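Human: Not sure, check this?
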Amino acid sequence: MVKGLLNTVNRRLSHDDAGKLLLRLAVGGLMLFHGIHKLIDGVDGISGMLAAQGLPGFIAYGVLVGEVVAPCLLILGVLTRPAALVLAFTMVVAWLMVGLGKTFALDTVGAWAIENLVYFFVGALAIALLGAGRYSLVGLAVKMPHSSWGVKSILLAICNFFSPGKRLSHVA
């Protein structure tokens, strides 16, 4: 009886998918601000840093993939794991470009100088391990009732277009 009660309580208090949504919204949403800034101001500063290290400047446009496209995919819950890995890779590149010399430094208020890079990196890795959860565009499409097959079919078509390796079907 106690075991059954504990199982019931655990089921009712388990909100793994809500936690995944919150993590995706926080990491994707906050990183999107960085990407929007680069969309508005351009990537010239990053191109200059790359050129100073002997790398072609056009690579700077990859930052837009990591800071705009990947966060949007995370927020929507489409291609979540690959998008999270792209974001994690972007943070590694950012650390190598601007944070390497600050790895063991504190900033002016006593915080770790690269803590934002680390937060985004660890958050992205957590999302890559956990996946999107059911509160995502893909999860929504799979869980829709039969009465809305038209909408469900459109959502599944969109999700299948963006997820060529994993085909979804009309699962009730």
